[in-house]
């Protein structure tokens, strides 16, 4: 096939907006920034960041993301048409969209006559004016992507009016017409026919079409592909299909099918999909959701085979039971109990540590990963802990301090001031100096973090740059069949970089402390801070530095 004849199909990710409507899904500000970066690395063309009018977090997101280089990926702000009876320029929603200063603005409007008159309670003419004036106003500042809400249901009810709404947006300069199957109940053949008709009816405008499907009939992927075959050039969806009710179209499946199954299309600028599994798991971990083992292409069971034969025979036979080579999407064939997560990380980190050719080191790392995964560790979201693991296994790790003991008093309640606080006491050896410190915090982890850094900052001033930006706790089943473990993920930042660490224990404080220690060690290793050399003269009279009192 001639690569130059392939039609690019642009991917529009709405994990951070539509996806975050899913039950149990919530993203912190830092999560949103991290996910956006990952999506950009993957080559996703558009990333919808949220509603700038709805909350402070989204406003902060749009401010911060502006300063981050995302390559060719465009960030979009999302919002509704102006309110009825108001000038677009005076509408707070419109102003917030412009203030977000994104290269694209996604404007959603009503297509269905019933929705205009019964939900918005505006005349059909006023709805058209709301769409047109909003698109025109926003188009002065950014490219406008027009999302036609309930397009397929609206088209069924009143096809002429549905087309009129698109024409109102197109006539006012919107660049994209995205047809939404908002209720998610349309069948692929209906999607194809209506998309084709809509494209024909707007042939007099210089606009491109996109598709936005929900998965209520378990057809969101099939519907998205049907729309592409009918001429849509953009697919909107979420990573892993997370979203309200039954979710959105899963971009993982859409991208895989377009790149690997259908011919004539190009996605993600022709990039390889070998980080797709990693991205899928990263989003699950960040959203604090359990993976879906049976998820097509990237699920842990997507290429899992039950054994029973000699391993070589299984390896040979398994490929006859696989629709694609799992490596194409960064997944792995699983036979017996081979654990797969972390493998792509292992390869990447091995390269950084110049041990890619060291078979023995690689085997040791893999064995350690498998052991820890059985205890409940999961390194997809804890790259810094993984980096330290590689250093430990290959002998290049030297601790910057040793914890002698710590103690936390949690839940100390002052009923008069209505505050609950915690106190941590910590005793560390740094070189040959003993440090003993205490600190208070809003909770036990905050107090531990404060005490740890207080004890270390004298020796390692660069630690003042770092702070904890996110903290997540999950109960995990440990492979050993013992009591459930607690997995703690911590995200730290020093303003230049953020990094994730992990701790697992049956004790939540211990799990948190281990993740904090890794966060500090990672920072010190990253900065190449030397370990303090034990002073020969003072070896026999270890110094007790009572450096501070609780504040
Ligand atoms: Zn939607």
UniProtKB/TrEMBL annotation:
<dbReference type="InterPro" id="IPR013785">
    <property type="entry name" value="Aldolase_TIM"/>
</dbReference>
<comment type="similarity">
    <text>Belongs to the alpha-IPM synthase/homocitrate synthase family.</text>
</comment>
<dbReference type="InterPro" id="IPR002034">
    <property type="entry name" value="AIPM/Hcit_synth_CS"/>
</dbReference>
<keyword id="KW-0808">Transferase</keyword>
<keyword id="KW-0028">Amino-acid biosynthesis</keyword>
<dbReference type="InterPro" id="IPR036230">
    <property type="entry name" value="LeuA_allosteric_dom_sf"/>
</dbReference>
<dbReference type="GO" id="GO:0043714">
    <property type="term" value="F:(R)-citramalate synthase activity"/>
</dbReference>
<keyword id="KW-0412">Isoleucine biosynthesis</keyword>
<dbReference type="InterPro" id="IPR054691">
    <property type="entry name" value="LeuA/HCS_post-cat"/>
</dbReference>
<dbReference type="InterPro" id="IPR013709">
    <property type="entry name" value="2-isopropylmalate_synth_dimer"/>
</dbReference>
<feature type="domain" description="Pyruvate carboxyltransferase">
    <location>
        <begin position="9"/>
        <end position="277"/>
    </location>
</feature>
<dbReference type="InterPro" id="IPR005675">
    <property type="entry name" value="Citramal_synthase"/>
</dbReference>
<keyword id="KW-0012">Acyltransferase</keyword>
<feature type="region of interest" description="Disordered">
    <location>
        <begin position="531"/>
        <end position="551"/>
    </location>
</feature>
<dbReference type="GO" id="GO:0009098">
    <property type="term" value="P:L-leucine biosynthetic process"/>
</dbReference>
<dbReference type="InterPro" id="IPR000891">
    <property type="entry name" value="PYR_CT"/>
</dbReference>
<dbReference type="Pfam" id="PF22617">
    <property type="entry name" value="HCS_D2"/>
</dbReference>
<protein>
    <recommendedName>
        <fullName>Citramalate synthase</fullName>
        <ecNumber>2.3.3.21</ecNumber>
    </recommendedName>
</protein>
<comment type="pathway">
    <text>Amino-acid biosynthesis; L-isoleucine biosynthesis; 2-oxobutanoate from pyruvate: step 1/3.</text>
</comment>
<dbReference type="Pfam" id="PF08502">
    <property type="entry name" value="LeuA_dimer"/>
</dbReference>
<dbReference type="GO" id="GO:0009097">
    <property type="term" value="P:isoleucine biosynthetic process"/>
</dbReference>
<dbReference type="Pfam" id="PF00682">
    <property type="entry name" value="HMGL-like"/>
</dbReference>
<dbReference type="GO" id="GO:0003852">
    <property type="term" value="F:2-isopropylmalate synthase activity"/>
</dbReference>
<keyword id="KW-0100">Branched-chain amino acid biosynthesis</keyword>
């Amino acid at each position: 096939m001639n690569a130059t004849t392939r039609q690019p199909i642009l991917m529009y990710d709405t994990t951070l907006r539509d996806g975050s409507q899913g039950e149990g899904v919530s993203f912190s500000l830092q999560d949103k920034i991290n996910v956006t970066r990952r999506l950009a690395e993957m080559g996703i063309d558009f990333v919808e960041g949220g509603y700038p009018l709805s909350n402070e977090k989204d406003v902060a997101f749009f401010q911060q993301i502006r300063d981050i280089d995302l390559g060719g990926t465009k960030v979009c702000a999302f919002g509704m048409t102006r309110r009825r009876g108001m000038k677009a320029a005076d509408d707070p929603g419109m102003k917030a969209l412009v203030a977000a200063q994104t290269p694209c603005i996604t404007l959603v409007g009503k297509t269905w006559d019933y929705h205009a008159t019964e939900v918005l309670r505006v005349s059909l003419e006023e709805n058209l004016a709301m769409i047109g004036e909003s698109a025109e106003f926003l188009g002065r500042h950014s490219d406008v992507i027009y999302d036609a809400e309930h397009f397929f249901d609206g088209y069924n009810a009143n096809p002429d009016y549905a087309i009129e709404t698109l024409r109102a947006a197109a006539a006012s300069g919107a660049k994209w017409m995205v047809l939404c199957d908002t209720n998610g109940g349309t069948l692929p053949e209906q999607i194809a026919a209506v998309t084709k008709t809509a494209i024909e009816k707007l042939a007099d405008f210089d606009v491109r079409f996109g598709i936005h499907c929900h998965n209520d009939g378990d057809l969101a992927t099939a519907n998205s592909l049907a729309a592409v075959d009918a001429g849509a050039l953009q697919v909107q969806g979420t990573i892993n299909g997370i979203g309200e009710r039954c979710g959105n179209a899963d971009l993982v499946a859409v991208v895989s099918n377009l790149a690997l199954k259908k011919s004539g299309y190009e996605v993600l600028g022709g990039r390889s999909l070998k980080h797709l599994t990693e991205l899928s798991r990263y989003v699950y971990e960040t959203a604090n959701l359990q993976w879906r083992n049976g998820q097509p292409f990237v699920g842990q069971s997507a290429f899992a085979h039950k054994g029973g034969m000699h391993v070589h025979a299984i390896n040979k036979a398994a490929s006859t039971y696989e629709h694609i080579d799992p490596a194409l999407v960064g997944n792995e064939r699983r036979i017996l109990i081979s654990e797969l997560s972390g493998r792509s990380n292992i390869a990447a980190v091995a390269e950084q540590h110049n041990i890619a050719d060291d078979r023995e080191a690689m085997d040791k790392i893999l064995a350690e990963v498998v052991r820890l995964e059985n205890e409940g560790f999961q390194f997809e979201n804890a790259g810094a802990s993984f980096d330290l693991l590689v250093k430990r296994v290959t002998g290049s790790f030297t601790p910057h301090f040793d914890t002698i003991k710590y103690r936390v008093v949690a839940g100390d309640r002052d009923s008069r001031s209505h505050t609950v606080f915690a106190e941590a006491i910590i005793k560390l050896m740094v070189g040959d100096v003993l440090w003993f410190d205490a600190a208070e915090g809003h909770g036990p982890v905050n107090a531990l973090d404060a005490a740890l850094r207080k004890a270390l900052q004298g020796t390692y001033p660069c630690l003042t740059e770092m702070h904890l930006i996110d903290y997540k706790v999950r109960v995990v089943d440990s492979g050993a069949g013992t009591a459930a473990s607690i997995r703690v993920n911590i995200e730290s930042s020093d303003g230049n970089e953020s990094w994730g660490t992990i701790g697992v224990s049956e004790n939540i404080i211990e799990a948190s402390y281990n993740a904090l220690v890794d966060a500090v060690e990672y920072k010190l290793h990253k900065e190449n801070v030397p370990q303090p050399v034990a002073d020969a003269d003072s070896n026999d009279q270890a110094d007790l530095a009572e450096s501070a009192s609780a504040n």
